[in-house]
Write a structure and sequence with these properties.
heterodimer; A: mainly alpha; 3 domains; 19 helices; 0% strand; B: alpha/beta; Rossmann fold; five-stranded parallel sheet; 5 strands; globular; Armadillo (chain A)
């Protein structure tokens, strides 16, 4: 048999050698391509078979879990402790029999817990605790793949709210380079930390992206009984995004005590922070900030100048009518004139006719200030 | 027919409801739970299926999620109110979208009640019974 094999290899070699080199190379490439094509297709076939088998198993596990949870456990309002224990034992047995069952169970418990309150939610929480499903979530935090760690964090957020003992496990993930993992860790921190849910802001070195801030705001506003700190303490953060986030939260919670710290931000090196601070000072009616904002006006760029005009108009103390009128009459920049005009409209002691007279005394202005003022005072136009 | 007669009739009558929800788990649970309360339940997993059901059947109450594929919950409510046989059917909206403007908008286009997710199941069942009860009383009066 071996001799036969040897002779067939030898004859193939002789056949192969009779061709010139470039034909030999072409034959090798063709053979390699055919082999790779076959290997590729066979592996694809196996993968599809495996996936289909996995999907069938997942589907069965889902049906089983749904039946266990909805047909029995969540359906019965008058469930006694004894009945509950019996269910829990049965579910534990199923978990031991089928490895997929556990993860599917966790997913469904979390899903229903997120959608229902009251007795349904309490039963699910009790089941989660009794089956020690928290262990599975905590184990995921130690896994290598970020997707698994993020999933673990999601489970912790939903089912372990207020359990401060686990907060330290989150610390290494709070500044992770992966955006998704970081946001999940921060969200979990807010929901777990009872005393100071925003303490992580003091140590956040990575950027809080805009979408990240939106998600955190959603968590903050949807978490009941959240201990809200004075966000002004984080305004000194070296992380610009933390500062910007806290300005938004100060506005949301209308924390007037933050006004002195917001005034300090008028010297912040970042234009974005300065603009946000000026804008918020206006919204908080911070009269004490007016003088400083006006003093800084000539040194600032156009974007901040516009914000200052808006804020001075919004504060409306009545002490800076001349400042606004001067900007309206003397600025050569259209947006400044328009913003000053809009700020003047509701300003105390503002006399439109008097200002129009002053406008008419000016030399021919290409900016048509009277038209701009009429535009600003037209109540049908939203400026 | 006096009030006691109406109440007795309502007790033995199987009220027909439609649940429109795109989350299958939620849909199947709500179906089982409402069937346990003696309702006859139809389900729809998207807006198009819901429109088909609404055009073919008359319901005693419709539960609608706002975020639906193909046809949004808002459009569906408008469709129900324009439908001849279901224009007076009570509608309960179940949604995680619960800003003041969303609630005002859904109620102003014709929904009868709004339940913010997460909600208590017993509250939903009570609202369902009350709305159907009130609606039936009005119909029989």
């Amino acid at each position: 048999m071996n001799k036969q094999n040897y002779s067939s290899v030898k004859s193939f070699y002789e056949w192969f050698n009779q061709y010139p080199l470039f034909i030999e190379i072409a034959i090798v490439i063709i053979l390699l391509s055919v082999v790779l094509f076959i290997i590729g297709n066979v592996s694809l076939l196996f993968k599809r078979i495996f996936d289909a088998y996995h999907d069938v198993r997942i589907k069965k596990a889902k049906e089983l879990v749904t039946a266990e949870l909805t047909a029995d456990l969540m359906m019965d309002d008058s469930l006694t402790d004894h009945d509950f224990d019996k269910y829990a034992i049965r579910i534990r047995e199923l978990m031991l029999k089928n490895r997929l069952f556990k993860q599917v169970l966790i997913d469904q418990v979390i899903f229903y817990h997120r959608n229902f309150t009251d007795s349904t939610s309490r039963i699910l929480q009790k089941l989660f605790n009794q089956l020690n499903l928290a262990d599975s979530a905590l184990k995921k935090l130690k896994r290598g793949a970020w997707e698994l760690r993020a999933k673990g964090l999601k489970e912790i957020q939903e089912m372990m709210t207020g359990e401060s003992n686990y907060v330290q496990l989150l610390n290494p993930l709070l500044n992770d380079k992966n955006n998704d993992l970081r946001i999940e860790a921060q969200a979990a921190y807010i929901r777990l930390h009872k005393e100071n849910p925003f303490k992580f802001l003091a140590h956040t070195t990575e950027e809080l992206l805009e979408w990240h801030q939106i998600l955190l705001c959603e968590i903050i506003t949807n978490t009941p009984n959240l201990e809200v700190p004075e966000f002004r303490i984080y305004l000194r953060s070296k992380n610009e995004s933390v500062c910007s986030f806290c300005i938004k939260l100060i506005e949301y919670y209308q924390q007037l005590d933050a006004i002195p710290d917001l005034i300090n931000l008028l010297d912040h090196p970042s234009q974005k922070i300065r603009a946000a601070a000026v804008s918020l000072l206006g919204k908080l009616d911070a009269e004490q900030a007016e003088r400083l904002m006006i003093a800084k006006f000539p040194m600032e760029d156009l974007k901040i100048q516009l914000k200052i005009l808006e804020s001075v108009g919004e504060i409306g103390s009545g002490e800076n009518l001349t400042f606004l009128q001067t900007q309206f009459l003397e600025s050569e920049e259209f947006t400044l004139v328009k913003t000053a005009g809009c700020a003047l409209v509701n300003y105390p002691f503002f006399d439109k006719e008097e200002l129009i007279q002053e406008v008419n005394q000016l030399d021919d202005s290409p900016l048509a200030r009277e038209t701009i003022l009429n535009h600003c005072t037209n109540v049908l136009i939203r400026n | 027919m006096d009030g006691t007669d109406i109440a007795t009739r309502m007790l033995h009558m199987k009220n027909k409801i439609l649940i429109v929800e795109d989350e299958f788990l939620m849909l199947s649970f709500l179906r089982q739970r409402t069937e346990k309360e003696n309702f006859k339940v139809d389900i729809a997993i998207d807006g198009n299926q819901a429109i088909e059901c609404i055009d073919k059947n008359k319901y005693d109450c419709i539960l609608v999620d706002l975020m639906l594929p193909f046809v949004s919950g808002f459009e569906l409510i408008a469709h129900i109110r324009a439908n001849k046989q279901n224009k007076e059917t009570p509608i309960i909206v179940l949604s995680a979208l619960s800003t003041e403007s969303t609630i005002i908008e859904t109620l102003s286009i014709g929904a009868n009640d709004f339940l913010k997710k997460p909600f208590a199941l017993n509250v939903l069942l009570t609202k369902l019974k009350l709305l159907i009860g009130g609606h039936n009383l009005l119909r029989t009066a």
